[in-house]
Amino acid sequence: MRRTSILFGALLLLIADAAPAAARTDGSTPAPAQVSKLVTHVPASTLNQVGVGKLWGPSEFSVTKLSGSPFTSGGKPDLLNFELAWCPHCEANSWALAITLSRFGTLSHLGVIDSGTLYGTKFHAKPSYPHTKGLSFFHAVYKSSYLSFSNVILENVKGQNLQKPTKREEAALDTFDPPASQGFPAVDAGGAYGFINSGYSPGVLAGKSWKQIAGVLASPTNRIAQSIDGLANLFTAAMCVSDGGKPATVCNSAGVVAAGKARLSAYPIAP
Fold it and tell me: Given this model, what pLDDT does residue 20 score?
């Protein structure tokens, strides 16, 4: 999703199957235990069978090999994600990010979020992918011996300013996603690769609840799984480059290797 102007408000409309708990600041609610378990425990056999899956091509999903210094936090490669809570493309990516993180460590306290309608009603996007269901990392806890995770939610579901990146995070983003044409979501894989936009169409998730999406992630022939799991393999391959291929059981797995060969080696190095 390309940004033209993002400082506007909008009304958030949550679908009836939202988790019954107090709203978080970004507009999310705590994820049901079943959803969290399913998304953080996708079988390795499924991920290997999916491989690169079904992802958008380079005209929609930008991948840049970065040539600067590694982006780290606490001495570990940092997976840095920039997003907007009302952005359907960001919500589409969130599922793959959660799977990726879970392959290197333990992810807990996830939230669920509905993108609402701002993308269509305020920005008149066509298609606007209303009410795309995603995961929220607001207040999530991540523990890993291999990676660190930084998530910056610039605006909540109403289009109001929420979090502000550090100067260092902004500088990392600018290397592959300059302010003049900035798009969301934007992911920096430890300074090894930069990704702009969602890896697949948010329309793949249309009409699906969080439980329905999470419930098919272990089914390698399902269209949703082929998109989400394939993107997770690609993000994982990028992080394996940044951390020296650890753990080997993950980085040398068939799905990760296939995604890396198919989508990482073909992109130019950033100037």
Answer: 37
